[in-house]
């Protein structure tokens, strides 16, 4: 007989039937719709989050690629010059992106199944600065063999091209995983297929403009930010950026060597003392030393001294802004090593009716400082001198290393804006300055905006009726730029005479690159009206260079311009042709600079 407990367990339970008054077909349908809506919302939210992450990663990849392209161009500028380095840069960048975009499927098939292509990006990015150092440094001097026209193409094809191509392939792969725009808004298939590529290119171009290498940051910025803004350090930061975006993998271990090698041994880390010491160790056997350097708004600026011969120069990228002898005392001014800068001082020697009699009553405007050869001479003569220089680093180095006197007015801003302001504030047409010296040059070509008709008209307005202007231009007489610039100057200042720094090589039919100074007066019709008085002892400032170069000797006549192309006046809104001509001029200037200063000095920067 079973116990009461067992019997109780076997008794069936009576189910509790709920009140079915609430269960109607309508309520049941509403419940089903509610559940379906919640499921749909969850699916859409997950898809939106997923696609947001994909598109965010795509934007980061494209931004890093754009920053890499800009940093590469900036890194090659000190070795090849800004203009030669940029000749084929845009074409190479576009080719790399197209190659990666169109071959992403093929590249993925080359990898083991399931291996993402993106894991190689940090490794490739970390090798870019090391590879560019090997291909462009002073130990092997590859740049001399490559030449300025094709050297940048070769270096970037071996370094930045693979990085950009694989980045583009990763972007294409990510966009394939996202919902197509045509699926959302029902666009035609061919439009939907084209939109990812067009959108990616647009984002890249926007990022390229936003990450353009400025070379400097605010002086009040933290030191770490200033360091990261330099050329090579920015490449290291880009490699770290790639590493933060991709999935962590053991392959990143192989990026440690190139990263540390660049960080510790690369002499091009401009803001690090150990990198400067490394550069000087490489230059010491050749008798050169870098005294100071800075990456600034006009390029890489440095002070380099030749210890054996006793002179120092100021360089900007692949150009020299001036130089002076260190083995001669500055008495009362330094002894310059280039005669063309002394020739500019000859504005004081031109006799013009109504000319100011005493230097102490004269005012001078100097556009473009260099090392300050002409401004220092003007100040030594007692002339009230205003210097307009866009680059603060140039002014600082000229003051610290090249005997630029303090008693001058320094205007550290763009000359176009400054002269616009002066002309607008000027009450009469009589001008303000007795002498104007126009001496701007960097990167193998002059800033085109400072040789336009409009800027020269500003200088004409600022020059007194009895004033004289001297304009320095460096160009190849076999090319059209110098012909166009002279035509533009003469359209504003009809009375001009032109002189070369050195005589033309007789019988030469090749390149004829020379520094010239164009002397003009505000009034007059013929260049013959410009005559130089014989210099007195006080004019020479106890300088041997001025004794030989102060009075110009080698005059240029119209038949010396050998270009058969028709030149036209350079206007503010019509500078494209001159910019194209300047590319050829910059290539010629690069070759000249390699003869003036050894290749190793340019490459070690």
Automatic annotation (TrEMBL):
Top-rank taxon of the source lineage equals: Eukaryota
SUPFAM superfamilies, sorted? S-adenosyl-L-methionine-dependent methyltransferases
Q: Where is this region: Disordered?
A: 1-22
The answer to whether keyword Transmembrane helix applies is: yes
The UniProt keyword set, sorted, is: Membrane, Polyamine biosynthesis, Transmembrane, Transmembrane helix
Matches recorded under Gene3D superfamilies:
Vaccinia Virus protein VP39
Q: Does the keyword Transmembrane helix apply?
A: yes
Q: Where are the transmembrane segments?
A: 54-74, 86-107, 119-140
| Pfam families for this protein | Spermine_synth
PANTHER family membership: THERMOSPERMINE SYNTHASE ACAULIS5
Name recorded for this polypeptide: Spermine/spermidine synthase
Species name: Sporothrix stenoceras
Q: Supply the source organism's classification.
A: Eukaryota, Fungi, Dikarya, Ascomycota, Pezizomycotina
């Amino acid at each position: 007989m079973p116990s009461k407990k067992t019997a109780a367990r076997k008794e069936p339970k009576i189910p509790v039937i709920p009140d079915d008054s609430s269960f109607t077909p309508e309520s049941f349908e509403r419940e089903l719709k509610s559940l379906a809506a919640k499921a749909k919302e969850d699916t859409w939210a997950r898809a939106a989050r997923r696609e947001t992450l994909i598109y965010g990663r795509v934007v980061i990849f494209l931004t890093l690629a754009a920053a890499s392209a800009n940093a590469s161009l900036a890194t090659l500028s000190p070795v090849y010059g800004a203009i030669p380095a940029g000749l084929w840069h845009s074409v190479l960048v576009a080719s790399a992106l197209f190659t990666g975009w169109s071959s992403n499927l093929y590249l993925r098939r080359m990898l083991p199944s399931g291996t993402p292509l993106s894991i190689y990006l940090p490794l490739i990015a970390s090798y870019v600065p090391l590879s560019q150092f090997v291909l462009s440094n002073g130990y092997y001097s590859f740049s001399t063999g490559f030449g300025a026209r094709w050297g940048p193409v070769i270096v970037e094809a071996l370094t930045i091209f693979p990085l950009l191509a694989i980045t583009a392939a990763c972007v294409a792969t990510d966009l394939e995983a996202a919902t197509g725009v045509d699926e959302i808004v029902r666009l035609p298939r061919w439009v939907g297929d084209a939109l990812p590529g067009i959108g990616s290119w647009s984002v890249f171009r926007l990022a390229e403009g936003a990450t353009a290498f400025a070379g400097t940051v605010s002086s009040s910025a933290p030191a770490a930010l200033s360091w990261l803004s330099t050329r090579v350090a920015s490449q290291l930061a880009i490699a770290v950026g790639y590493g933060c975006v991709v999935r962590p993998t053991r392959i990143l271990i192989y990026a440690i060597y190139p990263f540390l090698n660049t960080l510790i041994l690369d002499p091009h880390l401009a803001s690090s003392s150990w990198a400067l010491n490394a550069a000087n160790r490489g230059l010491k056997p050749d008798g050169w030393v870098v005294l100071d350097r800075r990456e600034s708004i006009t390029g890489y600026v440095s002070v380099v001294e030749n210890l054996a011969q006793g002179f120092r120069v100021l360089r900007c990228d692949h150009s020299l802004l001036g130089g002076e002898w260190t083995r001669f005392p500055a008495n009362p001014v330094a002894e310059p090593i280039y005669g063309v800068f002394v020739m500019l001082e000859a504005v004081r020697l031109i006799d013009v009716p109504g000319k100011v009699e005493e230097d102490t009553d004269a005012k001078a405007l100097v556009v473009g400082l260099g090392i300050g050869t002409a401004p220092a001479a003007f100040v030594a003569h007692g002339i009230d001198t205003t210097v307009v220089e866009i680059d603060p680093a140039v002014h600082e180095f000229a003051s610290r290393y090249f005997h630029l006197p303090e008693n001058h007015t320094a205007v550290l801003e763009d000359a176009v804006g400054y002269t616009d302001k002066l002309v607008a504030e000027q009450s009469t047409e009589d001008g303000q300055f007795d002498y104007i010296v126009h001496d701007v040059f960097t990167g193998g070509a002059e800033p085109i905006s400072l040789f336009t008709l409009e800027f020269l008209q500003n200088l004409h307005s600022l020059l007194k009726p009895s004033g004289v202007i001297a304009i320095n231009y460096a160009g190849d007489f076999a090319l059209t730029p110098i012909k166009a610039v002279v035509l533009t100057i003469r359209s504003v200042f009809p009375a001009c005479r032109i002189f070369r720094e050195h005589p033309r090589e007789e019988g030469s039919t090749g390149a004829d690159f020379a520094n010239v100074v164009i002397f003009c007066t505000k009034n007059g019709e013929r260049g013959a009206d410009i005559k130089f008085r014989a210099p007195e002892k006080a004019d020479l400032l106890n300088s041997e260079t001025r004794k030989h170069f102060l009075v110009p000797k080698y005059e240029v006549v119209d038949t010396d311009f050998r270009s058969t192309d028709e030149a036209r006046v350079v206007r503010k809104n019509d500078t494209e042709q001159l910019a194209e001509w300047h590319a050829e001029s910059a290539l010629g200037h690069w070759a000249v600079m390699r003869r003036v200063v050894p290749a190793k000095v340019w490459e070690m920067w």
